[in-house]
Specification:
It is a single chain. This protein has 121 residues and is α+β, with helices and mostly antiparallel strands. It has one domain. It contains 4 helices and 3 strands, in the order ααβαββα. The longest helix has 24 residues. The radius of gyration is 20 Å and the shape is elongated. The termini are far apart.
Length: 121
């Protein structure tokens, strides 16, 4: 067996062979849909999106719960990396709650009021 590290396969080689592309495709698909919803909500003046996550993924040799874990983590990390605050709700279905600041969000208005209030004499 040949690998980039010599005669024995490396952990990195195994990861590349084990569903990395499928996992990335699933996360990318979700992120594309989430992005469209965020843009739509922001255009309407909203600063929160509720997004129903898929609960099953067609990833070979990975259990349903493990595939959810891997894909959901990848999605959340990417959203957080891009400045969004992300939470989950799992009561009846799995929902991402995505928030951001826009010009008129309550959080932003509160920050502005606090800023001015500190400068009042």
């Amino acid at each position: 067996m040949s690998s980039s590290h010599g005669y024995i396969v490396s952990v990195d080689d195994l990861k590349r062979q084990n569903n990395e592309g499928i996992i990335s495709d699933n996360a990318r698909s979700i992120l594309g849909n989430v992005s469209a919803e965020i843009k739509k909500a922001n255009k309407q003046g909203d600063s929160t999106v509720l997004f129903d996550l898929p609960e099953t993924f067609d990833i070979p040799n990975i259990s349903r719960s493990d595939s959810q874990l891997v894909v959901y983590c990848r999605v959340v990390k990417e959203l957080e990396k891009n400045g969004f605050k992300v939470n989950f709700s799992t009561q009846n279905r799995t929902v991402l709650i995505i928030k951001w600041k826009n010009e008129m969000s309550e959080e932003y208005k509160s920050e502005l009021k606090d800023y001015l209030q500190k400068r009042c004499v």
